[in-house]
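Standup notes, protein team

Yesterday: finished cleaning the Mesotoga infera set.
Today: dTTP/UTP pyrophosphatase structure.
Blockers: none.

Input for dTTP/UTP pyrophosphatase:
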Amino acid sequence: MVRLILASSSPRRKELLQLLRVTFETIPPIGVKEALSTSFDPEELADLSFRKARNVYERYPDAVVIGADTVVVLENTVMGKPSSKDEAFEMLVRLSEKMHYVFTAVSVLERRWNFSFIERTAVKFRRIPLKLIGEYVQTGIPLDKAGAYGIQDYGALFTESINGDYYNVMGLPIGRLWQELHTREVI
């Protein structure tokens, strides 16, 4: 039986990986610097997911380790997790009535091979009333999410349209990951 490890502490990624109906562990990477440039660079995002997976793989070399990182990109500017409620508010004001892109880089390491891929989903927000943005920010929910929203929570109210993988916006393109793992006979 393959030992599968999700190199993440994200409850959403854990929830999504459970859809594979396989046994896995979650072990977060330690000391991996997550800061990205403000200008979007897909190679930099892929490198971050790889560093997360490698950090855990080095401790568990007999396992298959999955690392991932998600960013929201508006007009080629990366919007990671906000550092404060004020920053979360500003991000949501900027996203209001605009199309943006959610990118998730996924890296999988195993002793015989490794691979990475990036999934992109386009999301269009409707006009979000400032009062609603303020109420959402006050819940604290946006503080641990790229772009300051979760499409699976109040972010659903803001979303006018989505083109691509919904689960990618949640932080793990589980269908593509299943396909890649299935093709390599991991699951």
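Follow-up from PR in the comments: Helices lie at 11-17, 42-57, 85-95, 130-138, 155-158, 166-170, 174-183.
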